[in-house]
Design goal:
With about 550 residues, the chain is α/β, with parallel strands linked by helices. Helices cover about 25% and strands about 15% of the residues. A hairpin with a 5-residue loop joins strand 7 and strand 8.
Length: about 550
């Protein structure tokens, strides 16, 4: 057992039911080496700030060996650390420190595909059609007399065809391989027992090192319908979601056997290690199938994330979530931001929809003023943190960071931007390295001032150092909200709606706390009660885009 494993927080098998889990995007969190890309040593150096924030766990996006064509979601070796992020020893040091601080550690696992630099894929390219090496991936002959047409009409989530043709050593055209994402991310064939067994090994590798769980990438994508039939995608379908009902690549029944097998593996480790599904499926009753008692523990509540800032829509998605997850005995999760979506203070104020993963840029209409975005963002967070269940935060939201919209084209790195030739901005705007201190190079992100994406000048004022100790700051608001959420047991409470509120106002009780969110455009007279979380309220009235928590 590694020392990190020895230091795991005391076993509490149910911790995840109410946990607040903070997503670290390692490239953009803190850079100790000074190369402009965040790393594990940087994370270790900043963990105290997360313990002080009051979260229960951290989830790290991938830091594994990777050529970084999809920011690490293209993994070339699942059981080692990319030199850009450090070493396995750095991981152990980080994990040990997190555990000492009482923070659980969740790591990402990416089972739908490998990098094209993975040994397996190199072996597949060097082997003949029909070989066991190719059978780990989804290779097929092309259509047409000379096999020059892709095996089916599926599109990559990042744009363009989901198939690429390979060539033999002598240059002759050969088979095609499937990649639901970038061309450098070939899909694995999960009907192959060798693939299944390899992932059991990978899970155990990290569990033995003491991780508290896994965030499972593309948990709706591993099983494909046999024969890979053509499918016409509706125009309005969200790209990352891609999960239109009936699509032969997504949400197939076969994935559930895989999750049952994974659940048995994590359960070997004492019952408090968790699996969280990144499953873009709807409706919620269907998503709940991912968290049946013998499958995963949690699933990201994307319908909640995608809800508009609209009282009726929010009430519906909250009700549907509580009902769907409760029906299978799982907690609902709540999430507003992550590394794939427009940061929620900006997104919730947009006047035009931004499909998930498409991103926004300088010419997107309706980009809100900073003040409007921050106010609405806080109101949405305060509503979310009042809801029973478990919540996910994305690094930088506690600073009120907006989406960065003016990244120059030549600085953009998301494959979506490149594969669509600039038609979709992609996800770089939510991935900009975060500011720690206003008067240091790169605002304290990196000692050299290098940053892999440019930081806006306005971020000096949003740096953590500026917000620490300022009662009115977004950081102080997050700390206070997390403290009160815990103190009043809000995550374990039962939600009861308050009826007969003016249009555009949401109200409910959870335990002893009354929660009112003013989603309307008008100020609202406040009901009687003791306001326990002040967020810029005028006395006696609740301004638009404000949420209040009150004790009766
Ligand atoms: C979902 C991840 O969140 C995203 O960042 C990534 O590009 C795709 N899966 C492919 O792994």
């Amino acid at each position: 057992m590694s020392t990190a494993a020895a230091h795991r927080p005391a076993a509490d098998a149910e911790w995840w039911r109410t946990a607040v889990i903070y997503q670290i995007y390692p490239r953009s969190f803190a850079d100790a080496s000074g190369d402009g890309i965040g790393d594990l040593a940087g994370i270790t150096s900043r963990l105290d700030a997360l313990a002080a924030l009051g979260v229960d766990a951290i989830w790290l996006s991938p830091f594994y060996v990777s050529p970084q064509h999809d920011a690490g979601y293209d993994v070339a070796d699942f059981t080692d650390v990319d030199p850009v992020f450090g070493t396995l020893d750095d991981f152990d040091t980080m994990s040990e420190r997190a555990h000492e601080l009482g923070l659980r550690v969740i790591v990402d696992i990416v089972p739908n595909h490998t990098s094209s630099e993975h040994t397996w894929f190199k072996q597949a390219l060097a082997s003949a059609a029909g070989s066991p090496e190719r059978a780990r991936y989804i290779f097929r002959d092309g259509r047409g007399d000379d096999g020059s047409e892709a095996p089916n009409n599926w599109q990559s989530v990042f744009g363009g065809p989901a198939w690429t043709r390979v060539h033999r050593e002598d240059g002759a055209p050969d088979q095609w391989y499937l990649h639901l994402f970038d061309v450098t991310q070939p899909d694995l064939d999960w009907t192959n027992e060798e693939v299944r067994a390899e992932f059991d090994r990978i899970l155990r590798f990290w569990l033995d090192r003491g991780v508290d769980g896994f965030r499972v990438d593309v948990a709706h994508g591993l099983a494909k319908e046999a024969n890979l039939p053509d499918f016409e995608i509706a125009d309005d379908i969200d790209s990352m979601a891609g999960a239109q009902t009936g699509h032969p690549a997504w949400a197939q029944e076969g994935v559930h056997d895989i999750w049952r097998r994974w659940r048995a593996v994590v359960d070997e480790y004492g019952g408090d290690r968790i699996l969280t599904a990144e499953a873009w499926v709807s409706p919620l009753t269907r998503m709940a199938q991912w968290v049946r008692p013998d499958e995963m523990h949690q699933a990201f509540n994307f319908p909640y994330l995608m809800s508009k800032w609209d009282s009726a829509a929010l009430r519906t998605v909250i009700d549907d979530s509580l009902e769907a997850f409760e029906a299978v005995g799982a907690p609902s999760t709540w999430v507003l931001s992550n590394h794939d979506v427009v940061r929620h203070p900006t997104r919730l104020s947009l006047t035009v929809p931004s499909p998930q993963g498409h991103g926004i840029g300088p010419d997107t209409p309706g980009i809100p003023e900073a003040d409007t975005a921050v106010r609405r963002g806080r109101a949405a967070t305060q509503l979310m943190l009042a809801l029973p269940g478990s919540a996910y935060l994305y690094q930088g939201e506690e600073l009120g960071l907006p989406e960065v919209t003016d990244i120059p084209g030549d600085a953009r790195q998301d494959p979506t931007w490149h594969r669509t030739e600039g038609e979709r901005y992609g996800r770089d705007g939510c991935r900009v390295p975060i500011p720690w201190s206003s008067d240091s190079p790169a605002y304290g992100f990196s000692p050299t001032g290098l940053t892999w994406l440019p930081q806006p000048d306005a971020w000096a004022g949003l740096a953590r150092s500026e917000q620490e100790g300022d009662e009115g700051s977004t950081l102080s608001f997050y700390k206070e909200a997390l403290r009160l959420r815990r103190e009043h047991g809000m995550a374990t409470g039962t939600l009861t709606w308050i009826e007969d509120l003016p249009e555009g106002v949401l109200g409910f009780t959870v335990g002893a706390v009354t929660v009112i969110a003013n989603v309307s455009g008008d100020p609202l007279p406040l009901p009687d009660g003791q306001n326990i979380l002040v967020s810029g309220l005028a006395t006696g009235t609740l301004p638009p885009d404000t949420t209040v928590w009150m004790l009766r």
